[in-house]
Amino acid sequence: MKRIPSLISILLFMAILVVPSLVWGIRLLSGKETNEATIEAEENREPTEWPKKFSSNLPSEIEAYYNDRVPFRSLMLRLYSSWDGSTEGFYRDRLQPVLVAMSGRKADTEYTSLVDLYNDKEIIPGQNEKKEQPKPVQPKSKEYVEIDRKEPTCFDAGYVTYAKKDGSDEYTEELPALGHEYVDAGVFEPTYLKYGYHLYRCERCGWEHKAEFTEKLIDDSFFPENISNGRVIVGRYNWLFYTGDNSRDYFTGANVMSVETMRARLSQMQELQDICEAQGKTIVFVVWPNKEQVYPEYMPTYQIENSVKREPAFAQFVAENSNVKFIYPVEELTKGKVLADTYYPYDTHWNNWGSYIGTMAVYQALGYPVGDYQDIQIAEIPCYSRGLVATGMLKGEDFVEDCDYQVVYRPGVGTLWTDGEKDLSGGFTDMYRSEALEPLYDKKLVIIGDSFRVSMLPYLEKDFKFVSASGRKHMDWAAQDIKEADIIIMSAVERYDNEMFAKLEELKMYLTQ
User: Fold this and answer.
1) CA 142: distance to chain centroid?
2) Are residues 262 and 172 in the same domain?
3) Does residue 459 contact residue 356 with C-beta atoms inside 8 Å?
4) Which are the contacts of 114, defined by CB distance < 8 A and separation ≥ 6?
5) 3-class DSSP state for residue 176?
6) What is the rounded distance in angstroms from the CA atom of residue 15 to the CA atom of residue 498?
7) Which of 101, 408, 412, 420 is the most exposed place for a label (fewest CB within 10 A)?
8) Is the CB of residue 203 less than 8 Å from the CB of residue 183?
9) What is the pLDDT of residues 283-295, one digit of tens each?
10) Helix (H, G, I), strand (E, B) or coil at 128
């Protein structure tokens, strides 16, 4: 299907390449060429000189010299990008849907039902969640009087302490937790972006519970690929996806590893696991799914080349040939999106809810208990994670359905100290350390990875005695922490899996020095 603006775009781009250079050449011949006129005032620098000697940076130096002297070239490039984005948007929103409808094509995609995973628990409004009502607590005899009491809540047990009047004896009786008493809070119908559900709310504490889910609506029409600024896929309902780092090959299954490659990578992981076990350490290897693997329903209509894609194929290979702890939690993150979205619609990253689910997947691999997703209280909060809007040079006013979720996890529990920043949207450091005040696990944990690790820190730093989080490029900053660690998590988002495996030799060096 040919795009109407394509020819105009090509002609404009050719003009940008040729016209500035032509004008510059005429000015040179006329003797009117000046350096100062071609440097933007705000740069506040001297124009780049012609390179005086050969070096490895010669091509870049020549390009800088050219860019500083060719008039209005950068201005034309900015105008071109703006025009190209506008025409792409007009074509995508106005013309393309008409042409697709006329073609009668359909998407060839199947979607798995998820709601049955949550619809096995019946909620009866007005009935206490705990079927057996606790019996009233009474003192043993008239000789005893109540001296202390803590009332139970929906979540926590309370107690009553009795003592003899003369103080010669004392004992405590537990008051069981009350459980929730739900009332009907309304039915929410499904849309193309949200699952439907019945909401119940505890009239005692306000705790909300979603149940009786219904599948969200699925658009199965043919949806062509739309790429903005060469880097961002504009999907259904304006969900945005990144095209860099061969992301589409991961999605279509075009880059499944050969058996030889999988065997070599497994050998590396096995060797590291053996080293760690000999030192009393535990190591977990994690690849976080690219966003499109969790939200294929919003992607363009692509031909899937392999039904078992790169990471699932590797995870299966590892499970069948070793006991190495390797996880790819695409099923967990997909299941979690029924309750709330796990990734940002306009960014590549997972949100707070997604990072919670990813963290719990690691806990499961470590053998730690993990609660039911439905028992976690989450609340929608404002968010402005729109990195792909800027990358795709798209209009911000067209992308306003973004949000995040506040996850209530061990409220009131904090840290003794922290060193570094962990704000994914406001800036984070490549090295972060913390010590917990009330850890669940008296362990030293080191996590090495990319930006996805940052969103896990609010959970990890509450649960582990000591946490060290390092970017892969600066793993040397965590060298001593690695030597002293009880648990090591080596992680990467899917499109960077090669980078993670490339760092395994360095990790081995720190462990064996």
Assistant:
1) 61
2) no
3) yes
4) 195, 213, 215, 334, 335, 337, 338
5) coil
6) 39
7) 412
8) yes
9) 999 999 999 999 9
10) strand
Would you say how long the chain is, in residues? 513
What's the mean per-residue pLDDT of the chain?
Answer: 84
Same domain, 172 and 296: no
pLDDT above 90 for 362: yes
Note whether residue 223 is domain-resident: no
Question: Domain for residue 222, yes or no?
Answer: no
Query: Residues 196, 156: one domain?
Result: no
9's tokens: 């775009």
Segment 293-316, tens digit of pLDDT:
999 999 999 999 998 999 999 999
Same domain, 35 and 134: no
Residue 163, Ramachandran bin (φ over 0: left; ψ between -120 and 50: alpha; else beta):
beta
pTM: 0.77
Q: What is the pLDDT of residues 189-229, one digit of tens each?
A: 999 999 999 999 998 888 888 889 999 998 888 899 999 98
Residue-wise DSSP of 206-245: --EEEEEEEPPP---B-----EETTTEEE-GGG-EEE-TT
- Say whether both 175 and 201 belong to one domain: no
Q: What share of the chain is helix, strand, coil (3-state, %, to 5)?
A: 40, 20, 40
Q: Which residues pair with 493 in a beta bridge?
A: 288
* Residues forming a β-bridge with 233: 227, 241
